[in-house]
Amino acid sequence: MIPVPYNSIVCAAAAGGAREPLFRNPSASASASVYLLQFNCNRRRINTNNRRNNNNNFMDSNNNMRTESYLRHVDSRKLMPNGAGHIPHLKAVILGEALASEEDDLVLPSKEFSDQANVHSPEQYMEMYKRSIEDPDGFWSEIASQFYWKQKWGEKVCDENFDVRDGKIKIEWFKGGITNVCYNCLDRNIEAGLGDKVALYWEGNEPGLDGSLTYSQLLNQVCQVANYLKDIGVKKGDAVIVYLPMINELPITMLACARIGAVHSVVFAGFSAESLAQRITDCKPKAVITCNAVRRGTKPILLKDIVDAAINDSAKDGVSVDVCLVYDNPVALKREDTKWTQGRDIWWQDVIPKYPSTCPVEWVDAEDPLFLLYTSGSTGKPKGVLHTTGGYMVYTATTFKYAFDYKPSDIYWCTADCGWITGHSYVTYGPLLNGATVLVYEGAPNYPDAGRCWDIVDKYKVSIFYTAPTLVRSLMRDGEAYVTRYSRKSLRVLGSVGEPINPSAWRWFYNVVGDSRCPISDTWWQTETGGFMITPLPGAWAQKPGSATFPFFGIQPVIVDEKGVEIDGECSGYLCIKKSWPGAFRTLYGDHERYETTYFKPFAGYYFSGDGCRRDKDGYHWLTGRVDDVINVSGHRIGTAEVESALVSHPQCAEAAVVGVEHEVKGQGIYAFVTLVDSVPYSEDLRKDLILTVRKQIGAFAAPDKIHWAPGLPKTRSGKIMRRILRKIAARQLDELGDTSTLADPNVVKQLIELSDS
C-alpha cells in the first residue's frame, strides 16, 4: 500500500470572514479600461520598525508608501489603451524575413474579451490575490466548499512546516476532510444536470477514427473498471501501474483508481522496458494496465512487448506482477499477433463490459494519496512524486478555471499525454472537475501532415488550445500555409506549457494560430507543484511575449541570489516559493530525505524550483530554464534558454538546443544544435550570421563556440528535447548515450553524430 507521507510541525493560519464563493463566475461589471500591472523597480527593503497603515502598507521614514513584499508584482498600475490588435514586428517572426528581437511589446486583451473574463481587471486580480495571501484559510475554504465533501476538514485548513531548520518538511491542506476526486469529477456534475454533456471527445491517429462519451457514459465505464479492480483484490492505498496510449481508457482507468482509493501511477507509453521496470519495482503494483499496441503516425509501437520485458526485469528484482490487463487495439495490432502469458494476461474487452456500471465510492481523507508520478532525476533512480487528494483537487480545478478563462461552452484540447503531470492536471482532473468537454488525441500532431492540429480544431470547434513550445516551433518550421488553410475561428484562448517559450515563437503562435485575437496563457509550473504557479489570466492584464507574467492566487514567488537572499526589483536569480499551496506534492515516495534535500535544503525556508528566473522592470517574470542548464563561460553565467531564444529569432533558424562543453580556456563553452527552416542549406555564412545574432542580442561572451547543424533534435514522443543525449554528442561521449528508446525518431541521433564535424 502507498502510505500517507510523513508529517509533523504545525503552522497557524489566519481566519477569514464570509465572502461570495470564488469558484463561481464573477458577476461584477468589467472595467471599461484595461490596466497594465507595473512593478516599482526602485523598491528598497523596509526597516522592521517602519510603521504600518490601515491598508497593510508600510510608510518609510520619508512617508513614502511601500506595499507588503508579497504584493511587489502588483505595486502600481498604469492606464493603457484598449485593443490587442496585431503585434508590432509581425515580419520579425515570419520565417525567412527580418529578425524578431523585441521583448517589450505589450499585448492587451480587447475590451470585449475583458468584459466577459472570469478575472477582468488588475483590480479584481489584486483583490483576490491579496486575500489569498493574507487569508489563505478563508480564500481556499470558500473555493473548496464548492466541491462535495462527505465530511468537512478540521479546524486548520493548512498545517505546514516549510523550513528544514524547524524539523521535517510537512504540508497538509484540508486534513480531516473526507471526499473523492472521481465523485467530484463525475457524479457531482451529473447531479448538476450535466449527464448528457460530452465529457470526452476522442480523435484517433487515423483521420475519421473518433468517438465521444457523455458524463453519464463516462461514469458507467469508470465504474466497470473500478469493479474489476476491486474484484482482483485492489484496495484503498494499493498502486496500479497504467501504461496506456492516449485513448479514453487512460483517463477512465485513472478515475476508476481514484473512485476506489487506489493510487494510480501512469507511465508515459513511450518509456523503455527498463524505465517501466524501475517504476514497477519501486511501487509494487497490484496490476499493470496496458494496450497491445498503438500507432503514432505511421509508426506502430508494441506496448505489450515493452510491458512483458519490464515485468520480467522487475521479477528479477523480486517484484512480481500477477495481473496484466490488456486493451485490444486492432487498428495497431491483431489480437492473434499479440504475445501472451496465460494466467497473467487478460483482455480488457473480455472482462470489463461484464461488470456492473455502478460502483460505491471509497471516501478518502484529503491527505490520502491520489497518484504517484515518476519524474526522472538527472542521475540515478526516478523520483516518485506523491500527490494527495483534497488540496490537489481544489488547486487544479481553480487554476484551470482562471488561467484558461474557462466557460461551460468551451471545447478544450490539451495536447499533452497523461503520462506527464500536464495530462493529469489539465487533461483529466482540472477540466472534469469544472464539468468541461475535453478532447483526447491519440496520434502525432503532424500526421498525416502539419495541418492535423488545425483540422482537429475546426472539426470539434476547439476554443481552448494548450500545447508545448516545442510543437509551436515545429509547426513554425513547417510554414503558415498548414495553419491558414483552416478556419480556427472557434479558438479564443491559447496556452503554452513545458518550457519557456521564446518571444518569436510566442508571436507566431499569437499572430498566425490565434489571428492576433487569442490571449496566450504561458504557464509556469512543475510536476511537483501540481498546478500553475505563475501564469497570465486572460483578460486581466497586458502580456509580454515570452513572459509567464504574475503569480497565481496563493503563490508567493521570490528570486534569491546564491546565498539565498531575496532580491528586489529588476533582477535575475533562483526562483523559489514562500509558503505552501494546496496543490503541492507532499513527498517523494519512499524517500522523504531526498524530498527535503532536493527541494527545501538548497535555500532553507523556501521551496526551490530548480529554475532560474528574471524579473523585468515592470515586475513580469521570465523563466530562464533549469539552473543546471546554466553555462559558466569565463565567469559569466549564461542560461541556455536565453541563447536558444536568440538563435531562433534568426529568420532561417527553426529550432535550437544549447548545451555546455568543457573549454580549456573559458571553463565551459557554448555548443549549439541548430535546425534550419526547410530548404535552407547549411553554409559558413549562415553559421557566422547565427553567432552574430547571439552577440548582438546577448553579448560577445554568449556567442556559441560551435554550431552543430541538426536535421532534427532528439525528442520524446511528447516533444521534450533529450538534452542528455545532446550533451554526450557534444562531448563526443558516444559510448554513453544511454537509452534512446523513448525518442520519437531514434535515427536523429545517428544523423547528429554523422554531422558532428560538418
From TrEMBL:
It comes from Arachis hypogaea (Peanut). GO terms for biological process: acetyl-CoA biosynthetic process from acetate. PANTHER family: ACETYL-COENZYME A SYNTHETASE (PTHR24095), ACETYL-COENZYME A SYNTHETASE 1 (PTHR24095:SF14). This is acetate--CoA ligase. PROSITE patterns: AMP_BINDING. Residues 194-580 form the AMP-dependent synthetase/ligase domain. Keywords: ATP-binding, Ligase, Nucleotide-binding. Its EC number is 6.2.1.1. Residues 125-185 form the Acetyl-coenzyme A synthetase N-terminal domain. Gene3D superfamilies: 3.30.300.30, N-terminal domain of ligase-like. InterPro entries: Ac_CoA_lig, ACAS_N, AMP-bd_C, AMP-bd_C_sf, AMP-binding_CS, AMP-dep_synth/lig_dom, ANL_N_sf. GO terms for molecular function: acetate-CoA ligase activity; AMP binding; ATP binding. Residues 642-720 form the AMP-binding enzyme C-terminal domain. It holds the Pfam family ACAS_N. It is an enzyme of class 6 (ligase). Belongs to the ATP-dependent AMP-binding enzyme family. The keyword Repeat does not apply. Coiled coil: none annotated.
